[in-house]
Structures
1.
Amino acid sequence: MKKIIFTLIAILLILIGSLFFLLSENYLTGRITEEENLNFPYSYTKAICNETNFCEDYIIECEGEKTTKITATGYSVQHSNEWEDPRNNPDNFCG
């Protein structure tokens, strides 16, 4: 009987610890992404298309809202003349 109670208490403590860890991670992550003025460097890839629907992939490097570097990745695609880009392509890639 004592083994069963000990096992149940151990399982309960593990579950409570796991729940606390998961909740604290979500809380910390939410607080970081909600910051308004993020001035740390980051990068992402984006396909940029021209008027003939030739799209080339670029690495966009940012620091806050400032674009610091744009580098072609070498990947590209030529879409048909009827293709319309469904994305909104702003001039300021980091803002």
Note: The two ends are 63 Å apart (CA to CA).
2.
Amino acid sequence: MTQTSQKKIMIAIGIALLATIGVLLTIILRPTQEPLVDQEVVSDLSQEKSSAPLFFSTMTHMEGNWTQAASNLAFFEKQAAYLKTAMVYADEYDAVLTFESEIPFAEGMLRFDHNVFQEALDHGMGIGSHCDISPKIDFTDEEMIAEFQKRKDAVDALVDPLENLGCSGGGGLGDWYTGAVGAGFKYIDGTVGYHYLAMPLSQRPEGWTNKAILSEYYHYPAPWDEAQRYYPFRVSESSFTEDSDGKLVVSGGSVGLLEGMAEDQDCQEPCKLTQDDVDVLIEKIRAFAATRDTSRVAKMEVYIPTQTYDEPAMKYFFEQMRNLQEDGVLQWASQKEIYEAFVAWESGS
């Protein structure tokens, strides 16, 4: 090979190397391409994922004054039929309901060998105890524990006690915190004006004396302050003062009686459920959902008497609630599931 040929080859190699370097530099220095997913969307998705949910739950009580439920088969089966109707709706519309029993109906389930509560659990519903403890009696701590305990025992005899972690009601002059915790309850729902009776006047809404509570405010939702009512929190005494070291979760969230929504809870007995009631409830839920603190587990609930499940407007209620769930506004849950979600949230899970 001549010297001239060698020079040509070296020049060609040099040009090729320069071209390669140029291509590499172009790739390295080229501005980053637009991401496949908009960063604002990613941020929104991340924020949505980290937001604590807004749960929606119900209470249906098998009342303490239903003494005939323990021995009258016809009365018992009528109430059981209402609950079965409720479960049919829940299955169809992807809802989760909660039934809570006092002693008479629980005894009837055993006597008549008709365990509606286990059926409810099998359908994915929630159950609990209902504590119609006399609000006017200033029970000792031991007496208050006994009052809660006999109601828990009545339901524990029907289902796994781990399913029966909460009691609805129980407020009054007695120390309901000590009573509930002493009986093994983990949360208390259905909190109303009666619960303020155990607190000094300084911790009550203005004008809520014992006389005023017993005559007017007894079933008003509590805590009365809506900024506190719709967020479960722990307490360490019979008060609504939050204490993260407390052993009892106050799980309020009451919006009121379902069929009393349109009348602002001032309907004439017996109330009848209408589409207007449902529409008012939907407005209340959407209004709260738009302004709530999404960093905390939130909860709203309504009370539904057993006979209301036979009202024609119940179909409309379940349809509208399904729409809210599909829109991501809320999530159906049992009272126990909300307690468990709160525990997971406070532990950072």
Note: Residues 1-49 have pLDDT under 50 and may be disordered.
3.
Amino acid sequence: MQSKFPPLGRDRLQILISILEEMIIKTKCSKLVISLTDSGYIYSYKVIKFAELSKTLLSDFELNQGAPDTLYEIIC
């Protein structure tokens, strides 16, 4: 398959983070709740500040070596 997405998972995650950040900024929402899972199950829940979004997601994906099966409540 010819894909225009970067081959490295970290780079694809950075694209997702950029999209989430832009959504929050443009809509001026006070909270955004997302789940990141590839198993279809949620095993943990985290409340994070908007300023910590990128750092937290990159860290969680690296720690879990993939989708962290976590529900994130992002406070803006």
Note: The two ends are 38 Å apart (CA to CA).
